[in-house]
Amino acid sequence: MKVVILAGGRGSRISEETYLKPKPMVEIGDAPILWHIMKTYSHYGYNDFLICLGYKGYVIKEYFANYYRHMADAITYDFNSENGVEVLHTAAEPWKVTLVETGLNTMTGGRVKRIQPYTGDEPFMLTYGDGVADIDIAQLVRCHEQSHQLATITAVQPEGRFGRLKLNGNEVTGFSEKVRGEEGWINGGYMVFQPEVFRYLQEGDQTILEQEPLKNLAQDGQLNAYRHDGFWQPMDTLREKNELSRLWESDHAPWKVWND
Question: How many domains are there within the chain?
Fold first, then answer.
């Protein structure tokens, strides 16, 4: 089963990092968040990736074109040799990566529609290129298969964004901490689609996956939810990026389900 990753957005809310690179290439530790996402899928045996490019897609192309050099522990540059470069040791991922230009300003549904020729007549997985989770991909796939529905999304409960004031009239009597789940269940990405889902995507680049397509699937009784109660964190702001980096550098990254 192929894994489709949406990696074409501008990431305007984290513009401190994305004015020179696309959001999926913002680094957590010493690797782009895109790499972290791919490592999660690879841990469960899914190594065939379709990456939807858009904003500054050439940065992602250059990253994979030079992947062995990016990941090498040692490189020798021998200027007396005809070859000139020898990569002495590098991490060899079992990945097949297809990079597809899906338009600079294309919406999420339009990007998915554009990769239809590359997915074949088979189910595929889809996720966003800007968030990580400790989701069990094998359980997600089983949940989808057992549902016999056309689409499965992962439902997550994010942390509450704000603490709450306790008021007695105009007097503040205390504070309550942010509560997980107070904002309800939301779509956390990590989706599985049957090929028939393409029928719900209109031609053109302005289709937003999270609006009419998913709503229509739900109305038709074809949208399943896999509930994930574990760690899930998008990287929408610089604060969130720094928190993910802190977790990674402290060796307490919950999404690191793979072995080194």
Answer: 1
Residue 121 one-letter amino acid? D
Structure tokens at 46: 């899914």
Residue 258 lies in a domain: no
Which residue type does 127 have?
Answer: T
Which structure tokens are listed for 137?
Answer: 């991909």
- Round to the nearest angstrom and report the end-to-end CA distance of the chain: 24
- Structure tokens given for 182: 């107070």
| CA pair distance 113, 110, nearest whole angstrom | 5
Going by C-alpha positions, the residue among 155, 160, 132, 140 that lies closest to residue 214 is 155
pLDDT in tens, 70-95: 777 777 777 776 666 666 666 678 99
pTM for this predicted structure: 0.87
CB 40 within 8 A of CB 255: yes
Domain contains 165: no
Token output for 23: 């959001």
Q: State the CATH number of the domain containing residue 105.
A: 3.90.550.10
Domain-located, residue 257: no
Q: Read off the pLDDT of residues 32-77 as tens digits, 9 standing for 90 and up.
A: 999 999 999 999 999 999 999 999 999 999 999 888 777 777 777 7
The residues, ordered by sequence, that sit 6+ positions from 31 with a Cβ below 8 Å of its Cβ are: none
